[in-house]
Amino acid sequence: MSGNAGKANIGVVGLAVMGSNLARNLASREGNTVAILNRSYEKTQKLLDEHPEAGFLPARDYEEFAATLAKPRTAIIMVKAGRGTDAVIDELVRVFEPGDIIVDGGNALFTDTIRREKAVRETGINFVGAGISGGEEGALNGPSIMPGGSAEAWQTLGPILRSIAAVAEGEPCVTHVGTDGAGHFVKMIHNGIEYADMQLIAEAYDLIRRGTGKSPAEIADIFAEWNRGELESYLIEITAEVLRQTDPATGEPLVDVILDQAGAKGTGAWTVQTALDLGVPVSGIAEAVFARSLSSKPAQRAAAAELPGPDGTFDIHDADAFVEDVRQALYASKIIAYSQGFDAIVAGAEQYGWDIKKGDIAAIWRGGCIIRAQFLNRITEAYAADPGLVALVTAPYFADAVTRTQQAWRRVVVAAAEAGIPSPAFSSSLAYYDGLRADRLPAALVQGQRDFFGAHTYKRIDREGTFHTLWSGDRSEVSAVDTH
Q: Which residue, 12, 73, 75, 84, is CA-closest to 48?
């Protein structure tokens, strides 16, 4: 190993804000020496000038970068997902050797990661797709990290990632999720849950403001109070901060000055598209994605502004009671969002052959990531008690929580509908819950319709087999279908 003396044990390619912060985080941990490379050397030099204490080993090209790294060489790519990632991978494959490790720390689509891992594996080089959550602050101070890839790569990579991950209750927020694209798959689901969580919080704010007339600053105090209870989470915490902010230019609450058109980076849509392919209902996440899409259709919204309906205002006789109802509705809907997200993780693991431990995923989401929340401990406990849990919402803790909150949940959804206030995430979450617990669904009629117009067949409740009806007006004939 003497050939490794004075070399870096980890390298970072791509020195935009996320890459720079991750490199600084790595360099600040004992035992790490960090090599850095950027397409334009100006950014490399800027990082060197601003943080001489980090002891970075800079490189001007890929050959120098590879020569700077100790074997097995390990490099984390922090560039924009897409063709840029493929270009960097090609360059690293050119200068790396079998046994070296390439890590994609961007927000790649997991199917791209599966493709890349298969191609890189043929060269003898390990490829790891790693979801990194926590934004710029997390990258610098400790993110939640979700790496996939081979067990061989994890042996080298694990100690490095544990050194920089967030810590929750004494445990680093990183685990080997599974092979090839498993890490990016779980990060995608994380982001889908994040979409739902944010939309639910926004709906809660909207209902309280319209129903009680409270100012954003007053609602900020409500969220701050909620953050001391079972809703304690990073998103609730920052919501209070956003609502307290005053716009210096106008003196108005900043939330009233921000254009009500929400942007998206695509991971929420990927979650919904993937869930559709897997046959998993993630209606709360889907409605959160659709709500952002609807908000960004100003021409349609302007054209529909004069359509009839309630004006979005309503009088609440007991403001405190209504606020408490909204809190309970938010908690119940949040449980559904996580339950749907973990359903998707279970289905994805089955489809792609990943051994994903659900309790471990909940544990690494307790710190560093955007959806970190108090009740993730309860999810870890639920899967520890029953690893084969068929739906998170049926675990005793969550079933009890929904039992005590559902009347408030229903009152809020009714109040929103009567006032004409859109609450798609609250409403769809409740509809999903009721659909899940229904003893019989109208899907029987749908199957009859499908058989009528397309001879798609159906199954019966009273005997085995597959059946088709010869539909003919007032008379019909039922026949069993030979499926062999």
A: 12
pLDDT exceeds cutoff 50 at 2: no
Residue 276: its H or E element: helix 267-278
Give residue 251's region: left, alpha or beta (phi > 0; psi -120 to 50).
left
Catalytic positions are 187, 194
Q: For residue 481, give the 3-state DSSP assignment.
A: strand
Q: Which among 423, 396, 418 is positioned nearest to 313, based on CA atoms?
A: 418
On whether the CB atoms of residues 138 and 132 are closer than 8 A, the answer is yes
> Cis peptide leading into 253, omega within 30 of 0?
no
pLDDT digits (tens, 9 = 90+) for 142-180: 999 999 999 999 999 999 999 999 999 999 999 999 999
CA nearest neighbour of 66 among 91, 38, 33:
91
Cα 412 to Cα 406: distance, rounded to the nearest angstrom: 10
Q: 128 - beta bridge partners?
A: 103
Give the SS3 label for residue 406.
helix
Q: Is the pTM of this model over 0.90?
A: yes
The residue-averaged pLDDT of 474-482 equals 67
Can you name the residues that pair with 168 across neighbouring β-strands?
171
Please check whether residue 106 is in contact with residue 85, taking contact to mean a CB–CB distance below 8 angstroms: yes
Place of tokens 């079998």: 98
Per DSSP, the three-state class of 103 is strand
